[in-house]
Design goal:
With 80 residues, this protein is an alpha+beta fold. The protein has one domain (7-79). 66% of the residues lie in helices and 12% in strands. It is built from 3 helices and 2 strands; from the N terminus they run ααββα. It has helices spanning 7-23, 28-55, 72-79, and strands at 57-61, 67-71. A hairpin with a 5-residue loop joins strand 1 and strand 2 (67-71). The protein is rod-shaped and about 65 Å long. The two termini are 38 Å apart. Bidirectionally degrades single-stranded DNA into large acid-insoluble oligonucleotides, which are then degraded further into small acid-soluble oligonucleotides. Residues 35-62 form a coiled coil. It catalyses: Exonucleolytic cleavage in either 5'- to 3'- or 3'- to 5'-direction to yield nucleoside 5'-phosphates. Its EC number is 3.1.11.6. It is found in: Cytoplasm.
Length: 80
């Protein structure tokens, strides 16, 4: 990837690759090339999502009525 894609652009490229590969009309070498590109795009998307999850917080209220921000990871742990 020459430039930094947006998450949406990466997903769109993944969808295009999937459609091409599902049709089965491309040569084996091209399929392997597309597969490798898809792996990189998936890793890129996973990294983006992971970074976003680290930044998301939820507004909570304590027993005294005071508001505070809680990390999403802490919220997920509470629900387990």
């Amino acid at each position: 990837m020459d430039r930094e894609l947006s998450f949406e652009e990466a997903i769109e490229e993944l969808e295009e690759i999937t459609n091409k590969m599902e049709k089965g009309e491309i040569p084996l070498e091209k399929s392997i090339e597309l597969y490798e590109k898809a792996k990189k795009l998936i890793k890129f998307c996973e990294d983006k999502l992971s970074n976003v999850e680290k930044r998301i917080k939820e507004l909570k209220k304590d027993e005294n009525g005071n508001f505070y921000l809680k990390d999403i990871e802490e919220i997920d742990e509470e629900s387990d």
